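Batch 3, record 17
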Amino acid sequence: MRQTTIKDIAEKLRLSPSTVSRALNDHPDISENTKDRVRSLAERLEYQPNSIAQSLQKRRSKIIGVVVPQVKHVFFASIMGGITDVAYDAGYTVMICSSNESHQREEMNIRELIAQRVAGLLISITQSTEGCEHFKWIRKRNIPLVFFDRVCEELEASQVVVDDHDGAFKAVQHLVQRGYKRIAHIGGPEFLNISRERLRGYRDALHAAGREIDETLILHAGLNEEHGIQGMTELLDAVSPGPDAVFCVNDPVAIGAYSVLRQKGLKIPADVALAGFSDNPIASIIDPPLTTVLQPATEMGRRAAQLLLRQIEFEKETVPVREVLKTELVVRQST
Amino acid sequence: MRQTTIKDIAEKLRLSPSTVSRALNDHPDISENTKDRVRSLAERLEYQPNSIAQSLQKRRSKIIGVVVPQVKHVFFASIMGGITDVAYDAGYTVMICSSNESHQREEMNIRELIAQRVAGLLISITQSTEGCEHFKWIRKRNIPLVFFDRVCEELEASQVVVDDHDGAFKAVQHLVQRGYKRIAHIGGPEFLNISRERLRGYRDALHAAGREIDETLILHAGLNEEHGIQGMTELLDAVSPGPDAVFCVNDPVAIGAYSVLRQKGLKIPADVALAGFSDNPIASIIDPPLTTVLQPATEMGRRAAQLLLRQIEFEKETVPVREVLKTELVVRQST
DNA sequence: TTGAAAGCGCTAACAG
DNA sequence: CTGTTAGCGCTTTCAA
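Prediction for the assembled complex:
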């Protein structure tokens, strides 16, 4: 059964399609009387405007495309919450794609979203993204683009990030103050902005405390639990003397490290202290609860969406903006 | 800068738009030579077909709409993984909406997805969904529809669920065998299929063991951590004698209960044993690890998507199908 | 093997 | 205040 169109309404009311369209859009030219008739019939027929036709006509859809590396990561889930809230309020819908940390999938997603003629794109890159070619496609078609959290730095584009350096600095400074001597770092992929900045924060905090940096205590792994498991295992087995504290690039990695420590019967924080980054809900539930750096995820999503919307509505080339959000150290019993 | 269209290619090649269209779609009528010329120019111009125009013409988009109650729930995140995998392989994209457990938001989402003329809908209803009016909109426009996990039972529609009754039965049977005497149940919203079935499994398992059912040990709460906290608190404070084991409607609730028990210094399972439902990753990480019922979430997503695709491609009214997936009891140290 | 024309549902410029 | 016309980018008869 075909869906109701503006034409159907027009015929029944012996009006022209354009009048109906205008009435539906509350155009000032149309008489209240006509508007009423149109609206009530539309209601009765359960008319739903065909956004596809609208988009074709406007040469752009009211969809905001989002590409995240993993939907199941709570951090991204919260960000998505922030994005959708803002987008909905502005009359946009959101199309979420998961690149699953795969460069190839990320390309596919972007290609698809371009085909959908999205109004704009919000992207957080994968752990494996190296080239930036696919992001350049976006610029070429000048589709508004904002990166969040994990950004592509080769490209001039707006971005919303947290102060990763500062967050890491505070966490490690805290470990130093607590008196830990051999503070290790399980880091993420080297080229990722978040890994790099957090590592830099780690180094700077140790320097600031007048400590020498022992490079054997620095590992580059990944951003998932399994990387935490690998990393912690390696630190315990291959490094001697071992660390008495570990600052992990994020909470999933810290959780991985946590499970290794428990399995080996090591006490946290007595034998090894542990700190993460993100403040996943799980951080407060494990025992001992995890010291971590709180990232305002929802806020980040909101900001990114706002930035994008501004670009969309203003049309003209806007200078790339970089918003940096503050983090907060949450001290719990794991340190 | 306008994006490249079929017309641009046609002009440059002195062909008609229709020929270009056919060449791009590998139509047999077109000569290989022409196809090659078209394809290579398309490539060079980075032509991306405008799916909006295609959809308008086909009167249906290649988008599958998904409405979940909460994106951040790992269970749904995994389901979404399954859905997108299947959908992508079939050449569809997925538009994910979160109803945030709000009936109103759910309505909005559905309205929006209908406006987008999605090819089909995959829905898991909210905790607060009572009426089914908005689902009837979907049927009226005969848009293919499949419910998963949380289904609307007033409506004749295909669905993919797990055997909630059996899963709950196995969990409670296990608690009985372990020798627990006062087994409580923190349940979900009463009208939800999953809550009802799991409660029924609980009752049946106790009956099967020849136990009397103590109604004061049965609570109806919700599906989130906070409900677990409320529920467990109530069980400890208001019920006497208290329970020596609790079967929770899902893992988030079990986690909530877990944190209350720890806070009160009660030993798990010595003082109170705990079992959940879902097998969230967190279940294996907490200490003691949580006994729970594994739901094949990704598989559920895959099945739901496959069912929907079949409906989409076959067009004709298909009889509603109900797929029931098996669960598996995962026994850990919390019981 | 290719082209011309019409139309998907909507909006907007131009007329009246 | 309302109607006519054209067109968004693509596919698809029908004709050549």
